[in-house]
Each structure stands twice: as structure tokens, then as C-alpha cells.
Amino acid sequence: MSDHLFIRACFREPVERTPVWLMRQAGRYMAEYHEFREKYTFLEMCKKPKVAAEITLQPVRALGVDAAILFSDILVPVEAMGMKVDFMENLGPKLHKPVRTPEDVEALEIPEPEEKMPFVLEAIKLIKEKLSGELPLIGFSGAPFTLASYMIEGGGSRDFRYTKEMMFSQPETFAFLMKKIGRTVVKYLNAQIKAGVDAIQIFDSWVGCLAPEDYSEHVINHTSEIISGLNGKGEVPVIQFVNQASTFLELASKAGGDVIGIDWRITLDEAWKKIGYDKSIQGNLDPVVLFAPQYMIESKVRGILEQAGGRDGHIFNLGHGVHRDTPVENVKIMVKTVKEFSKRM
Fold first, then answer.
1. 260 and 269 in contact (C-beta within 8 Å)?
2. How many domains does the chain have?
3. Tens-place pLDDT, residues 294-339
């Protein structure tokens, strides 16, 4: 078993305090990030291993978190599958020629990570070298449904109209797409594990748009197949982050993973009951709390830690990613409060 606090908590081992890290930990809210952003596009930063490694390490140095997470984007493997992806400033990703027909799905390839995404694997090796074993490194991918929704919609969406239309009207085409994405993700994550990541997070950021029965019929098996196909069982924990899924956390838990990551729309203690105490839990501070005064940040953090009740297996995190305008000093207050209060508990 790893000696790292974060890894031990993932496997529900006893820890001396609650570990803490943040989704979107490396990125736009840090001044150091913008020094790189002035020189490169977002995708260029993802594809330059030395740059990606440095951006990954910036918050580790600044915040005192208990894990690093690879700087990259969930759409990197989607581009490798053959879709053109652009990141529009302040508008998010745009995917050209959205996938809408069986022929569109057929045209997608299942890429070999070493050939199509070597920059990710090189960044992992650089980061691991610079971390020198002091902290674990988290690798990641998008989950099949979240990646499929981007590919079908051509970007973000409020109602996921085209995604659900395909799911309901062309279920075989939708399943074909999900299967292809699943095979891509398994290869991609196993390549990350081989390159040296210490944990994996699977982001299902948009799955909360589904009804529980639709998640059960069209999604759960694909997520489960990915998790069961990953190497490193018992050594490399898997975190399954399910956003806005409080109505079907029991189902999400059945899909697999050592840790279930939750948003802030449900209390942590209630969520853990649904997930089951045989799994660890990650979360779940509302990211906007980090714009509040210090006393409020401290109060909200303490409230979540109290809900965890000192049970082994809690990893403190936000309920979603850090907002781009978040004051860094407030993030430091959150991290410090988690460390000090959980240790006292």
C-alpha cells in the first residue's frame, strides 16, 4: 500500500487527517498559468510536455495540496479519434462536424495513445520525475457519456438535445459510439498508468442530465467496462466523478471505482449512505464558496468534514472545478482549514 495520504484514503485506509486536492487545480485562476497562456494556445500547452508538467506543478508548490493532477483536457483523446477540436476563448470547446450518423461513428478511429497522444505520456514521466515521490499524480479521462455528448453536440449544451435524440431514436448508433469511446478510454488510461500515474479519475461531468432509467439502460455498462478494464487494481485507485447525479448515486456506485466523486447538490453524509460505505467519497464544497469571506469558507469546510464523521475514506475536494476568477488566497484558506480541522477531529 502507498504511504501517500491521498492513496490511503482512496482505499479507505486509516489516515491522520483528510487529504485535499481540487478539480481544475492547475489552470486559469493562477497568475503563473497566464504567463504560459500568453505564449501558447490551450491545446499547445496540453501538447508541450514541459509546459504541461510545469502547469501541473504550479498549484502543488503554491497550495500545499495532497495530490497533483495532470494538466490536460478530456477532449485530447477525442481529437485523437479523428475530430477537429478548437478551444474558443471564454466560449469553451468547439468540435467540428459533430457525430450524428452511423457513418460518422464508423469514421472514428480507436487511437493508440503512444502514437497519437505521446505528449500526455511524456508529461506524466516529467511530472513524476519532478515530484520525486513526494506526492501522487492523478491521471484522468472523460467518461463515455460526457465525451459522447461533446462529440454529438459539437460542444457544450444546456439540454443535450442531439445526444438524447440519438440515444432515444438511434440506440444502436449511440451504443456503437459509446463502445468506441470506451475502448479508446481504456487504452488511454492504461497508457497513463504504464507511464506512472498513481491514481485515475474518470470525469462524467454531464451525466446528470439523464433520468436514472436512461443512465441504467444506456450508460452504466460502458462506464463499468472501462473501470473493469483498467490495470493496477489494488494499487492505482479509480475515482468516478458523477456531476449532478444525486438522484442515481446508487447506480453510479455500481458502475465501479474505489472512490465516487460528488457535487455540492447533496450533503456528503447523505451521498455516502447512497454510495455505500464500502467505497470512499470525494467532495464536495460548492466552488463559489471560495469567493466568500474567510469565516464562511472555514465554516463550510468544517461542515463537510463533520458530515464525513471521521470515517475512513473521505477526500476533500470541490463539487466541480475551480472557477477561473477564484482568489488564490481563498483556495489556500480552504486547504489550510481542511488540514487543521480534520487533524483535530
1. no
2. 1
3. 999 999 999 999 999 999 999 999 999 999 999 999 999 999 999 9
Q: How far is CA 264 from the centre of its chain?
A: 15
Pairing of strands 280-285, 259-261: parallel
**Does the model's pTM come out above 0.85?**
yes
Q: Is 323 helix (H, G, I), strand (E, B) or coil?
A: coil
Mean pLDDT of 235-244: 98
Distance, in Å, from the CA atom of 277 to the CA atom of 281, rounded to the nearest integer, reads 9
**d(C-alpha 210, C-alpha 200), whole Å:** 24
- CATH number for the domain spanning 36: value is 3.20.20.210
Evaluate whether 110 touches 136 at the Cβ level (below 8 Å).
Answer: no
| pLDDT tens digits, one per residue of 82-140 | 999 998 776 789 999 999 999 999 999 999 999 999 999 999 999 999 999 999 999 99
Q: Which amino acid, residue 330?
A: N
Give CA separation, 338 vs 112, 136, 252, in Å: 40, 18, 27
Question: Which active-site residues does the annotation give?
Answer: 24, 28, 37, 73, 150
The domain containing residue 248 runs over which residues?
Answer: 5-344
